[in-house]
Amino acid sequence: MNYETQVAGDAPVRIFAEEPQPARRRALVIGSIVAIILVAIAAWVSMHGKGAEAPAAEQAPVVTVIVPGQSVVPRTISGTGSLAARVEMPVGVVGEGGEVRQVLVQPGDWVRAGQVLAVIERSVQAEQIRSLAAQVEVNRADAKLAQAQLDRARALVKRGFISQADIDQRTATRDAANARVNVAVAQLAEQRARTGRLDIRAPAAGLVLTRDVEPGQIVGSGSGVLFRMAKGGEMELLAQLSEGDLTTLRPGNSATVTPIGSQAQFSGRVWQVSPVVDPQTRQGIARIAIAYNAAIRPGGFASASIVSGSGTAPMLPESAVQTDAKGHYVYVVNARGETERRDVEVGQVSEKGVAVTRGLNGNERIVASAGAFLRPGQKVRPQLQKAG
């Protein structure tokens, strides 16, 4: 604001003059702009300065980590194969055969050794047995007569009525009659044995698996297998294993067998390891004996987990192991408090957790859970917990 001094009479007079209005408005606008810029700079500094580090640190998630160390875990081998009877017994016609009159068992029946499975018609053989039995009686009568004649001759020879030559003759007649008795008895026993073989019998105690004969069917030595049995009901798994896995197995190794489509598991034991390997597939067979169970059906498919020894490996809870298209992995917290992805190979899964066979030495800090919500390089606040 300008002013001028004028003299009016004896006293000076100060006269004020207003500034032009446009200049004043420009000053106000410039001041406002400067104030806005200063406020923006102050806000930027507050957001990006040292004071921002504390909120960022407070936002880092807390994660539970474990240091698993090394645990003793069994080494296992996995394989698949078909189920079968450990000792399968095919049963067919032993004798001359004929028409089947009765079938006495069904698949799934337990039978004793020597039990009749099927009966074949034997009317002709029965008549032959009666004929031979009668022939035995005839020969015994002849032998009895020959013995009586010999006894009378021996009494007369002392009186001089019969010579010693007659005695020898009668002795030979008696011996021949006895021999004919023995022949007839043997023929009768043979016929009875042949007739007995018409019964189709179980060669040993066990479980009937299949039946391929019906009443009225004509069977003979060329009829093939009429019944199949599992001796003692014992089953086995013919597990197909690689050449390398076979070298680690020994008879007596324990195994767990799981039929395909079933949640049931059955304990077994390796009783034979194949001494040869298929040159085409480079695989061999480990035979795993299993006790009888109705859920185990010969011809079915099953998987097996075979314990081939023991070793040491880090043991993690299942929640610590993540899986994606690249495979299994875990998150490790490094010294800077950042997460790192670590690819691993897993072994046996048990109630104790997951055995890690490759990728960890056991001294790392492993994120125990919530790994799916983390990303590599993320800052975290680890909270140590003992490995369970």
From TrEMBL:
Provide the alphabetized UniProt keywords: Membrane, Transmembrane, Transmembrane helix
InterPro entries recorded: Beta-barrel_RND_2, BSH_CzcB-like, RND_pump_MFP, YknX-like_C
Limits of the CzcB-like barrel-sandwich hybrid domain: 97-224
Residues in YknX-like C-terminal permuted SH3-like domain copies: 316-381
List residues of the CusB-like beta-barrel domain: 239-308
Pfam families per record: Beta-barrel_RND_2, BSH_CzcB, YknX_C
Which sequence ranges are marked TM in the entry? Answer: 27-47
Recorded family membership:
Belongs to the membrane fusion protein (MFP) (TC 8.A.1) family.
Q: State the protein's name.
A: Efflux RND transporter periplasmic adaptor subunit
